[in-house]
Amino acid sequence: MPKIHSTLLACLLAGLGAQAPAQTPVNSIQLGVAGVDFNAKSRDMTGPAGTTPPGIRADVRDKTVFAFVYDRRIDGPWSVTFQGGLPPVLKLKAAGTAAALGGIGSVRAWFPAVMGTYTWDAGPAFALHAGAGLHYTFFTDGTTNAVYDGAFGGTSSRARFSSSLGPIIKLGGTWSIDHRWFLDLSYSKYWIKTTATVTTATPGVGDIERKVKVRTSPDVLALTVGYRF
Questions:
Q1: What is the CATH T-level fold of the domain 24-228, as seen in this structure?
Q2: Residue 184 and residue 175: Cα distance in Å, rounded?
Q3: Where are the domains of the chain?
Q4: Model pTM?
Q5: pLDDT tens digits for 144-190?
């Protein structure tokens, strides 16, 4: 009788194991670093007549940022990818006829993006992915420094930057370390445009508002460590 019970128990456990196979993890989260080459181009700064010399432009210094990626599998090779990172403080510098001024201020950039991504196997431990979607980039904490204020005869300035909604594309590859952990190397391209509006308190005149339009097409190369779940 004990032998029969043991046999039944073994069969029951085997049946349960067959009904509940281990699930293959399909979603993932990634953390790492990304180098950003901004490729910034600006138009000449504009302002009230007689207050702004011609040819003054703006530029952005390249930056290394902390990157974050969340990938949610939808169906088969298709997934939705959310991409962003720790908002970096970007250093602004003068360009054009004012290039000699050097650094003129800073601004914090936020750059969340969402993409549709297609992934395919390229080997036993390798996979490639390609995605496209939209980013929404906005800016906070815009400031100028004494160099900028002094160049325009002001005592202080406040700066604001318009937000930007635009396309993003991404290409990359992953190398699986094991069932869950992997490394990912990717290239992303953003298209961003913003208008910086700087209001300078000027003795004897009052506030003077100047604007400069900036277009950037950042190239972003990221290396991340990923975990599937």
A1: Porin (2.40.160)
A2: 7
A3: 24-228
A4: 0.85
A5: 999 999 999 999 999 999 999 999 999 999 999 999 999 999 999 99
